[in-house]
């Protein structure tokens, strides 16, 4: 009976040692560069993400990005825009994640009388594919925000314009 108890104890220890650990869910590469269409930059943006915190199911990332496009022609605002986001990931598996984030976008408006810097709120929610050891990153998101813009037709009357776009992003992890 004593031999069966010792055998059972060794079997139990070996099962515990071979169980899947948290390390298979953790990202090994902490930096990402992404190209996003129709996202925070409205037309496109280039972004850099840095992993700040991770556990088995939750991950936090800080993101900065920029976009350059002829916005002045349509919206009376600067061509160069910068985005600052805080992103949260919830891992469904080791390669599928729910991605949600919010942040600010910095750009300058042009008016005949003055120039203003604006910080509208931006946000996104969607799906992210990224393997813990992989170099490839894919995001399918709904991105939105609320802008205070002075349109050319009514420059003295600012408008608050909400928007929501489907966006797609591909990236490289290192």
Could you explain the architecture of this structure?
- By secondary structure, this protein is mainly β.
- The protein contains 2 helices and 9 strands, in the order αβββαββββββ.
- A hairpin with a 6-residue loop joins β1 (31-37) and β2.
Taken in chain order, the helices and strands follow as HEEEHEEEEEE
User: Biggest sheet: strands side by side, in what order?
Assistant: 1-2-3-4-5-7-8-9
Structural class, by secondary structure, is mainly beta
Contiguous runs where pLDDT drops below 50 for at least 5 residues: 14-19
End-to-end Cα distance: 54 Å
Mean pLDDT: 82
Task: Indicate the proportion of strand residues.
Answer: over 45%
Give the helix proportion (percent range): 10-25%
The total strand number stands at 9
What Rg is obtained from the alpha carbons, in whole angstroms? 23 Å
C-alpha geometry: elongated
The profile of the biggest β sheet is: 8 strands, antiparallel, barrel
Question: What is the overall number of helices?
Answer: 2
How are the secondary structure elements laid out?
Layout: H1 2-18, E1 31-37, E2 44-54, E3 58-68, H2 71-75, E4 80-91, E5 96-110, E6 115-118, E7 121-130, E8 136-149, E9 159-173
Antiparallel strand pairs: 1-2, 1-9, 2-3, 3-4, 4-5, 5-6, 5-7, 7-8, 8-9
Question: Which features would summarize this protein structure in a list?
Answer:
single chain; 174 residues; mainly beta; eight-stranded antiparallel barrel; 13% helix; elongated
């Amino acid at each position: 009976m004593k031999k069966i108890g010792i055998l059972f104890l060794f079997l139990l220890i070996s099962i515990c040692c071979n169980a899947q650990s948290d390390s298979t869910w953790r990202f090994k590469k902490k930096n990402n560069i992404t190209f996003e269409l129709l996202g925070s930059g409205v037309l496109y943006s280039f972004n850099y993400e840095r992993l700040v915190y991770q556990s088995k199911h939750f991950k936090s990332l800080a993101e900065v990005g920029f976009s350059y496009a002829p916005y002045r022609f349509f919206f009376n605002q600067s061509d160069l825009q910068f985005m600052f986001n805080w992103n949260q990931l919830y891992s469904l598996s080791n390669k599928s994640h729910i991605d949600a984030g919010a942040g600010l976008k910095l750009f300058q408006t042009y008016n005949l009388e003055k120039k203003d810097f604006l910080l509208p709120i931006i946000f996104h929610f969607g799906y992210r594919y990224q393997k813990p050891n992989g170099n490839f990153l894919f995001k399918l998101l709904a991105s939105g925000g609320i802008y205070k813009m002075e349109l050319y037709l009514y420059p003295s009357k600012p408008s608050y314009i909400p928007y929501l776009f489907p966006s797609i992003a591909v990236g490289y992890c290192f």
